[in-house]
Design goal:
Largest interface: A-B, 61 and 60 residues
Mean pLDDT of chain A: 90
Low-confidence stretches of chain A: 1-6
Oligomer: homodimer
Chain lengths: 117, 117
DNA sequence: TAAATATATGAACAATTATTCATATGAAAG
DNA sequence: CTTTCATATGAATAATTGTTCATATATTTA
């Protein structure tokens, strides 16, 4: 038993339609999810995260290590921080950044597995 | 024992620098990884993937189900396909799309866990 | 308080991208 | 062969985004 969604021929089963409508998270959640992945979708930010895999670091060290300007790194750390992927700790003039949790590593590793296939 | 990368004060240990330099994937890999996440970084594509979690579907069904134009869906399926996240199967006039592997589900679930925290 | 240093931020610019519209391709049916 | 239908695609547009430059903020030290 199928329903006609759009085509001449019947393609999709009605219970599939209901299942999708039931399981599809609401628009706001989907938007947030896309926003999260957008944060991973820049190689500068990926590099920063890889650096932080090893240890917490201050802004200027990351900049030096990755050969990028302090400003660029600072802007990107702001993006990473507002996505709660990194957290900051101030020590005098210096601000140390570190991964906020292990999700970051898991997500990146899953992605890496996919591209290395 | 620290080295002075950029600041007056010594921040980062020399062995950390070596570790990062050793573990950091090459630029091309990092770029590919960012490109992969960029694909997940759009809510239309996320919706398409969620729909395909349930069953394979043809273009016009996805369009109808998600209330988007056939053209928009087709363009996005092309992006998903070139990232090897979905695969296509032709049956007459109709083209059915489905997830190409389980990585997709894993990556999305990891992301979802992060934002629901 | 003034100078020095680490970081943050606003504006501007170039580059990328998602959607729409119009149209092309490809397959089936008459 | 022509029509019809499903899908793909190219061009155009609007919107988003990463970097740079200049400058602001915050902290320490002289």
């Amino acid at each position: 038993m199928c329903i006609d969604l759009c085509c001449e021929e019947k393609c999709i089963h009605e219970d599939i339609v209901h299942k999708v409508e039931h399981d599809l998270p609401n628009d706001e959640t989907l938007y947030d999810l896309a926003e999260l992945f957008k944060v991973f979708g820049d190689s500068t930010r990926i590099k920063i995260l890889y650096a932080l895999f090893e240890a917490e670091m201050c802004v200027c060290d990351i900049a030096e290590l990755l050969n990028l300007t302090q400003s660029a790194i600072s802007h990107q750390l702001r993006v990473l921080k507002s996505a709660k992927l990194v957290k900051a700790r101030r020590a005098g003039k210096t601000v140390f950044y570190s991964l906020s949790d292990e999700h970051v590593r898991l997500i990146i590793n899953q992605g890496m597995e996919h591209i290395l296939e």
